[in-house]
């Protein structure tokens, strides 16, 4: 089953949790995904030794998922996505969170995650999806303790893999390593400087990683 969305999500979805504030440009520079490996250090030294700064642009990640597991007994799961930058030593640094979407196994989150894309830096990203317990629905998403929520799955990719796609949309399998369970989700991005808003198309795939061509929704260009 496929789903086609635009960046303007309206109606029919109930969400809880405040929208997370967008990081500043300086803040994003300090949260470059995957910073710290040997190649990245060398690139950073090259620019700094010449009094230059690495080229980057601000982008936004729009997240959605499909066919999530239903962890609730009397209702459907209430999913929230968390985006991390993976460091050289394997540790994860949180970049941002979406809102919580109520009773939905195919969520299209409204809150976007802002990140600085550096053209010469390898930026591994990790995505976690959680089912937020009902008793936390009045708690701000920033204050939610993830170890108290039900883990629904994980996906990962490099930021450049999304940016270099012609339609800037990708589809990943969501894995639950403990249960050996796979689900499909996707993410897209909009380039802030060009104000180009793109849609996302989701379909189930049995492969570990697959790219989904986007053909069913027109582009919206804001001038």
TrEMBL record:
Sorted alphabetically, the Gene Ontology cellular component annotations on this record are: plasma membrane
Residue ranges, annotated region (Disordered): 1-25
Could you confirm whether the keyword Metal-binding appears in this record? yes
Please give the Gene Ontology molecular function terms for this protein: calcium-dependent phospholipid binding; metal ion binding
Any one of the GO BP annotations: defense response
Q: Which UniProt keywords apply?
A: Calcium, Cell membrane, Lipoprotein, Membrane, Metal-binding, Plant defense, Repeat
The UniProt record lists the C2 domain at 39-172
UniProt main location, coarse: membrane
Give the matching InterPro entries.
C2_dom (IPR000008), C2_domain_sf (IPR035892), Copine (IPR045052)
Regarding the membrane, this protein is recorded as:
Lipid-anchor
Could you tell me the superkingdom of the organism this chain comes from? Eukaryota
Q: Where in the cell is it found?
A: Cell membrane
Q: Which PROSITE patterns match?
A: C2 (PS50004)
User: What's this protein's name?
Assistant: C2 domain-containing protein
Specify the species: Acer saccharum
